[in-house]
Structure formats: structure tokens, C-alpha cells
Design brief:
153 residues, mainly alpha, 5 helices, 64% helix
Length: 153
């Protein structure tokens, strides 16, 4: 059975946001003189931990992982791995990356600007994704109401 894609309207903007993030990071690092400091080590350590959570999330989703919002009518909602604790562990990783990768290089403007832009994008995306999951399963909201979207919200 074919999946149903939700969120087509914002997907290209999300891709543009992520591409722009890397361009901005490259430009800011190129035109400043970053150094590798103790705070760089802390930021890098946080990013490495986040990547382990990403691997856990993606392996938990298995063949259901996709960058688009595609809901399969008869597929079960994944509730294993980090999804036992959070609704959106991979988005938590993206939040962490966008906030902390620039801090490795003291790219503060990139960190601030894209953290704010990403917060706006995820607000849109998560609403669409949860609505699609609830529509397809009929009980997504009830099953996940006790789980936080991220570790901090």
C-alpha cells in the first residue's frame, strides 16, 4: 500500500533552510578567525552524543525513516528505541546540531539565526506531522500524550 505524503508545501522551505544553514556556517567561519577552544570541545561532545541519538532513532524507524512526512495507512506507530521517551527524537537531534555545530567554530550569528528559523520550521512541521499521524492512526495523540516532543518540551 502506498504512503500518503503530508507537508509538501513546507518541505522545500525546510530543505532551503538546511542548505542555507551550511552556507551561512561556511561563510561565517571563512570571514572570522575561529579557534578551537574548551567551549568548542564541549559543543563537539554534545554534537557527537546527538549523533548517537540520531543513529538510535533512525535504526528504530528502520525502513519507515524518511525526510518527508509519509504516513502509511496500516503501518504501526513506532514506539521503540528513543520513541519510548520522546515523540520526535530526530528533531531533537536537528535542534542540537543547528545550535551546537556553529558553536564549535564560534559562529554565533549562524547559531542564533538558524536556531530561531529552525524553531519556526519545526513548529510548522511537527503540527503537520502529528496531524497526519493522528488522522491515519486515529489514536496517535492519545498514545503519545504523555511523551514529550523533545527532552525539554
Amino acid at each position: 500500500m502506498a504512503g500518503i505524503e503530508a507537508g509538501k508545501a513546507h518541505y522545500r522551505w525546510m530543505v532551503a533552510l538546511h542548505v542555507s544553514f551550511f552556507v551561512a556556517l561556511l561563510l561565517e567561519v571563512t570571514f572570522t578567525t575561529p579557534s578551537f577552544t574548551n567551549s568548542s570541545v564541549v559543543a563537539l561532545s554534545i554534537v557527537i552524543v546527538a549523533q548517537s541519538i540520531r543513529i538510535w532513532a533512525l535504526t528504530s524507524l528502520g525502513r519507515y525513516w524518511n525526510t518527508k512526512i509519509i504516513v502509511l495507512p496500516d503501518a504501526p506507530v513506532v514506539e521503540k528505541g528513543p520513541y519510548r521517551f520522546l515523540r520526535h527524537p530526530n528533531y531533537a537531534v536537528v535542534i542540537t546540531e543547528i545550535a551546537f555545530v556553529p558553536l564549535i567554530f564560534q559562529a554565533y550569528w549562524t547559531a542564533i539565526l538558524f536556531t530561531l528559523l529552525n524553531a519556526w520550521m519545526l513548529r510548522v512541521r511537527i503540527e503537520v506531522e502529528e496531524e497526519a499521524l493522528n488522522h491515519m492512526t486515529g489514536n496517535y495523540t492519545e498514545r503519545f500524550e504523555r511523551k514529550k516532543r523533545f527532552w525539554f518540551v
